[in-house]
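Friendly challenge for the regulars: who can give me the structure tokens for this chain first? No prize, just bragging rights.
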Amino acid sequence: MRQIAARFGVAVPDTPDLAALAVAAAIVGATLALAWAAGRWAGPRVAALWERKAGTRAEGIRPRICAMMRYLVVWLTLALALRADDWPPLAALLLGLVAAAAAALLVRQVVRGLHLSRWIAWALAAFLFVAILADAVGGLAPITGALDGMAFMIGSRRLSLLNLIQIAVALLALYLVVRFAIRLVGLSIRRAGGLDPAQQLLAQKLAAIAIVAVAFFVAIDLTGIDLTALAVFSGALGLAVGFGLQKTVGNLFAGIILLMDRSIKPGDVIVVGDSFGSVSKIGVRAVSVITRDGKEHLIPNEDLMTREVENWSYSNTNVRVHIPVGVAYDCDLPLAQQLMIQAASESERVLKAPRPSVWLRAFGDNAVEHDIMVWIADPEAGVGNVQSEILNRLWQLFRENGIDIPFPQRDIRVREWPPGRTPPPDL
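First reply, four minutes later:
Bragging rights claimed.
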């Protein structure tokens, strides 16, 4: 055991300092008790504060935050204890082992809370565990030396396996910071009371672009890439954007323009070609339109800039619905029109102002044609269901008051019958 520890740079004494080990164990026990109390008392309050600021209730957020509070208290307390004194090897190993485990579990909880994959969480947790434990016991120098010795040259730059591990962990950590920053900024923007949904979405996208741009240059600095080397590829990148990514870039800027001029906003009811529905999301590439059938149409942003678009909610959400109705020529027209107004007025979704109206549209071949015109304020809830409700009620009213709905009739005149045939007796 002593030989294995020596290979990792950890000196194990012949006679362990049991007193220091007991003190370290007592510190660990007291820290765990303090962490349990902190998680029980501060965890629910921090979770409630997060829910108030975020404006939503995330499932499982309270247990996760309570666990994070416990791990954070253990990590910070034992890290201070390690820095406070020069501990003997076994005591330092105990303190470092518990502190490293708490830090690893804390990082795992944070990564899983950002809905990232398990392998990313475990990779960062394992790296942090090894780094903190190595710092506590003051060893593992042979491993880092061996990793640094496995190197290769790229041009004039030397890259070792240790450098690659450090770069990978730094990029993963940077990715976590970017994800958390985008989510935090998005929550702050959604909580802003002076912005409408379109302005909030635009602010979120611009903030995300800015955060990603800053993270890109930070990643370039972490990896040690010379920015002057990218000048060689600028011409090729420009050609790629001009030819291969023309539609993608066009859709990106079209989406930003749509959000800036607020001609189309999430929640609007629009008609584009054969697509009719409510705007669910304005994305980087396309706008999501959900129809009344539950189908989701993805319409490219450029189409909304170049094609004719009907926006039923642009200035206001009030929409007039036309319902054609025909009645017989021999019926009481004023009564029929009164019943049409009554049937429309009894619908809950029909607005009282402007009031429903009936227009006599034409004298048709078989019926006197009317238009019932009603106004609704929620077109996203559907138009056909309002028409069906009014027509069903009107059918009952017509039957109760003797109003006939005609069916097509044709008079046939026979000029002569074929020889040997006689006309039917009813003719």
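Residues 236 and 242 are 10 Å apart (CA to CA). The radius of gyration is 37 Å. Your move, everyone else.
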